[in-house]
Write a structure and sequence with these properties.
Elements lengths: L4 H4 L5 E7 L23 H13 L3 E11 L13 H9 L2 E6 L7 H10 L4 E7 L8 H18 L3 E8 L6 H14 L5 E4 L10 H22 L17 E5 L4 E4 L2 E2 L3 E2 L14 H14 L13 H7 L1 H8 L9
Parallel strand pairs: 1-2, 1-7, 2-3, 3-4, 4-5, 5-6
Antiparallel strand pairs: 7-8, 9-10
The structure holds iron/sulfur cluster.
Amino acid sequence: MFKSYERYGDPYKLVEFRILSLNDCSMDCKGCFYERNKNNFNDFSSALNLAKELKNNDYELETCYLLPTDMFDNKDNYNLFNNSDFAEMISMFEYTGVASTLENNFDEEFYKILKNNNKDSKIELQVNLLIAKLFDINYQIILKTRIQKIKEKYGDDVIINLAINTGLNLTEKEKDKLKQLLEFLSDDKIIELNFTFLYNSNINEEKKRSMMIESVKTIHDMMKHYKKDDEKFYNDRTLLRKPAFTFVGEPNRIYLTPIVPFDEYVFLDDQKFIVKQPSYSSFFETYLNLDNINSPILEKCNDCDNLTYCMGKGYFTIANQMNLGCYLDIK
Ligand code: SF4
């Protein structure tokens, strides 16, 4: 979240893919609820087809995230590039997004594989901060050193975001430390939030709802830190301008993911969000079906200054699905 739009340009007609095909991670990060051996999306010919159709309809393919686990912790992850459809799809995106704790440092082999596939590809590296080590001074120093070295070595070829897992109740001490680390480790002071619990089929809907509420509290808290007084509160990113597709297996499915303001894509495992065919028309059909149920949830929405943001991002589909009410009332 809190991506720097200045960096990417106008968020008009940009696309993100999130491909869940990585498994066997040994990192065991606090707050990670990903199922680490059930990520089996493998229909890369469909993913490639959707990428081509979006491109033909003037969407710019911005980032394809390879998820959900630490890319550098398992070299088998790199075998994905042996699949020609996967390799072609990745080569169409400006950035390949990967997550890592950097506990195993940045792996140059991955960089080489990506560059061999397409010399213009860049990496968006999401560095997952280890909440359990937030107060460990050695951890902070090692992380800073590794991040600096990556910046020196790869320049603009690797952009770095910091990230944490949400859904947990963070203590005031932890929040303060996170804000300090953002100052210390991040150029743009932004942080991505991982809603890992949404992908776990063993967590029931009620529990997901309560974890979502904790996540929205974290969004509010971090947003206060990020926002400058003279900036408007929300950006113009909408579900149509910057759609994000999540690809999960088994069976292989493609989901359109609505957005909770400020700017987090929310994966909801429900038929309504499925894009039935890997085509532009099917994306549009899902979008229109969602639009029909994306109605204001409360009387006060009709007079609210944020109405266009909430509608454009498809927030009401999330609020209806999870019984959330207005996210501004979640404190
Ligand atoms: S959900 Fe809240 S912020 Fe959004 S339009 Fe309604 S009252 Fe406004």
